[in-house]
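Appendix B. One record, verbatim.
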Amino acid sequence: MSRPTRALAALLCSAALMLAACEESPFTADESASAASPAAPTGTPPTAFPPTTYDIPFRTDAELDRAIGHVCRDAVERDRPLLLEFSAAWCSDCRKLNDMKANVDLAAELSEWPSLTVNVGRFDRHTELMASLEIESIAHWSIFTPSNCDAPVSSWPRSAARTLEVSSGAARNLTPRDLAEWLATFRDAGAV
């Protein structure tokens, strides 16, 4: 193979690899350039997590209301607060958080929680719920202590709310153990 042919083959291979690695983004090209996150801090190697499939279902508002009601009744019966997670497949923080949930410490803590993940799509699903809870970014966790499952979620006492930018923002150094410990502080203290 001649040198120009090898160079062209290498260029085509590189382009194919870049295309294969590309994922959908909620941003336009102009927005993604301005939304680029700062470089990760040096000195601490990133923790690797086995990739998981992002399989959070899209629900209609009616389906979500039924699912929230079910989780609420479980929380009330178990005398526990409940965890609502707001997420989307395109969100790198959401995918990393999803991968972190496979860690033994965080998985063990999450098993103690009545919880539900809300797939917000491209911020075009469950907009009224997100607006009523003043959720503007994802990945987001909110902890509630409901006593009346027929009341709107926005009327439930909220013990904590946290946006978890575990790959792109201030929370990038959080470990699964950190998240498990944070949740544990609310699990028993927030019981109804």
